[in-house]
Design brief:
Elements lengths: L1 E8 L6 E8 L7 E3 L31 E5 L4 E5 L4 E9 L29 H4 L5 E4 L10 H6 L6 E4 L1 H5 L2 H11 L6 E9 L3 E3 L2 E3 L4 E2 L5 E2 L3 E9 L6 E9 L16 H8 L14 E3 H4 L8 H8 L1
Parallel strand pairs: 15-16
Antiparallel strand pairs: 1-2, 3-4, 4-5, 5-6, 6-9, 7-8, 9-14, 10-11, 12-13, 14-15
């Protein structure tokens, strides 16, 4: 039995919501970004809109989302969970070319994150989890620097190894790269989710925290959202996938994990591709444009070709 995500539109949490059910299935420097100041009630003549000097005289507590821009990706890092909020890429046939080898790279802590909020190498030691890339190393073959940057722990989250990071998730990464054979520009945003599951008559969010002392949260699920475009077409193709951080049998179709973009946004608390108008004629489901299937033997074929 494997847990896979099902999305339900209803009144719970005010609309589209994700929950887990049981179903059989076979360096550019980091720059802290200060969020916009929250709206505050204003009484005329007493305080100008946006003036927080009375309440935050001695500092703004956060949250601070560390914004990271590197050679092959941009990312937002969550200091509380010690995982990325999201990692964004732009893939083309040209920028996927290169000869950099991941065997020459090592995982490393990100020195641009304050030490008290940093994911540590020792957190993963004997944790039972893989260090799972959000921007895959195979997307950064252009040069050694780009490859090395994918091994910062700010681009990493704990993933189940066998059956997920080394298998189904890796096949999904290949699927995204292969989209450049059908589209000229592919934009992909990946990240973790922490979703509730029903226990009795209650919904509970439970996740492990690895490290000693506990430091890095283990996501329950991961998402990839994709925007793809052909130069000779005015519209876009959009796909959204959410997968449980569990072993997934290769026989399970990728379409089992395909959901409306709005549902993934609801679960993640994020807004994806908000500069694209979402209406018929402008956007179409990705899986209506191409066949959404995974080739689980693709990595074997590439190895044989070398």
């Amino acid at each position: 039995m494997h847990r896979i995500v099902t999305f339900v539109a209803g009144t719970l949490l005010g609309g589209g919501v994700i929950y887990a059910v049981n179903r059989p299935t076979g360096k550019q420097a980091v720059q802290p970004v200060q969020p916009a100041q929250p709206a505050q009630p204003v009484q005329p003549g007493k305080r100008a809109p946006g003036d927080t000097s009375e309440f935050l005289r001695y500092g703004y507590p956060g949250p601070v989302s560390d914004f990271i821009v590197r050679s092959r990706y941009a990312a937002s890092y969550n200091r509380a969970l010690r995982n990325p909020n999201w990692v964004a890429e732009h893939l083309t046939r040209e920028n996927l070319q290169g000869t950099a080898d991941r065997a020459d790279s090592e995982f490393h802590e990100d020195p641009d994150i304050p030490s008290s909020f940093r994911a540590l190498l020792k957190d993963y030691y004997r944790s039972g989890y893989d260090r799972g890339h959000m921007c895959p190393a195979a997307d950064a073959k252009k040069d050694t620097q780009a490859m090395n940057e994918t091994f910062f722990l700010t681009n990493i989250a704990p993933q189940v190894g066998k059956g997920f990071n080394r298998n189904y998730w890796a096949s999904l990464e290949t699927f995204v790269r292969d989209l450049t054979k059908s589209f000229d520009d592919v934009y992909c945003i990946s990240g973790p989710l922490y979703l509730p599951q029903k226990e009795g008559d209650k919904w509970m969010v439970r996740y492990e925290v690895i490290g000693n002392p506990p430091n890095v949260a283990v996501p329950t699920h991961f998402f990839k959202v994709i925007l793809a475009k052909r130069k000779n077409e005015s519209g876009f193709a959009i796909g959204a996938f959410a997968l449980p951080n569990k072993e997934i049998d290769n026989s399970v179709p990728l379409t089992n994990f395909s959901f409306p973009l709005e549902y993934v946004e609801k679960a993640a608390g994020l807004k994806f591709f908000d500069q694209v108008e979402r209406k018929a004629g402008v956007v179409a489901p990705l899986c209506s444009k191409i066949q959404c299937t995974l080739d689980h033997d693709a990595w074997k074929k590439k190895r044989q070709q070398k």
